[in-house]
Design brief:
The protein starts with 24 loop residues before the first helix and ends with a strand. An 8-stranded mixed sheet has the order 1-2-3-4-5-6-8-7, with helices on both faces. It has 5 helices and 8 strands. Strand 5, helix 4 and strand 6 form a beta-alpha-beta unit. With 186 residues, it is α+β, with helices and mostly antiparallel strands. It has one domain: 3-Layer(aba) Sandwich (Aminopeptidase), CATH 3.40.630.
């Protein structure tokens, strides 16, 4: 999922004014949106990225063959700071940072896109991706009247298509900038 420009209709004219002055783990923990237990037993939470954690989150990475499917977290966080509609969180398994999720969201209009999503290669296939996506969906449902969540993905070896199908997404048949669109009703 390299870009969302093709599906954004609203002008991206604002700066992200999200405060990032949290300084310690206690605050980070208090900022968790919610938690879920993964199949490995770890508690999965979505936490704000702070000045203390940003480097760690930027260092999370997918495998060489998966790099075609998602932008590096540093690029995503940089883009988020120039996109008012961006909402992003680090994914933690207990106290270990394991991934990153970013939405493009317009709660007023109820339009939501899963923009970036990754679990570090060292932590994949443990149920963390499933739990993290459920938490992101919980965030959407909690904050808007959105009836659907959309995303785009690239096909190819190791494509996340089957993962998203398991999560209830289905292809819409649209191709945007070479990426295939999927949608899930909420
Ligand atoms: C896609 C991704 C986020 C999945 O995270 P994960 O933590 O490995 O997924 P989970 O362990 O929660 O898997 C949930 C289910 O999906 C399946 N699954 C996960 N990745 C899959 C893939 N690439 N292809 C097919 N099935 C996959 C798992 O086997 C599991 O199936 P099960 O419930 O029947 O056991 C992770 O593989 C990743 O970061 N990939 C690289 C980046 C990427 O493609 N991001 C998406 C951009 S659009």
């Amino acid at each position: 999922m390299h870009s969302i420009e093709a599906v954004i209709i609203a002008p991206l004219d604002g700066f992200n004014k999200r405060p990032s002055n949290a300084t310690d783990e206690a605050i980070v923990s208090a900022l968790s949106t919610s938690t879920e237990i993964s199949r490995s037993g770890a508690e999965i939470s979505l936490r704000e990225v702070t000045k203390d954690t940003v480097r760690t989150i930027c260092n999370l990475h997918v495998s060489e063959s998966q790099k075609q499917f998602v932008a590096p977290n540093a690029v995503s966080i940089a883009e988020a700071h120039f996109t008012e509609e961006a909402w992003f969180r680090a994914i933690y398994a207990d106290e270990v940072p394991v991934g990153f999720v970013m939405l493009w969201e317009n709660p007023t209009e109820g339009r939501y896109f899963l923009w970036r999503f990754m679990i570090d290669e060292r932590f994949q296939e443990r149920g963390y991706g499933r739990r993290a996506l459920e938490l992101a969906i919980h965030h959407v449902k909690e904050n808007s009247v959105a009836k659907e969540l959309r995303l785009t993905y690239f096909k190819g070896d190791g494509s996340p298509q089957a993962f998203y199908e398991k999560m209830g997404f289905a292809d819409t048949g649209k191709i945007l900038d070479g990426e295939h669109e999927m949608m899930r009703a909420l």
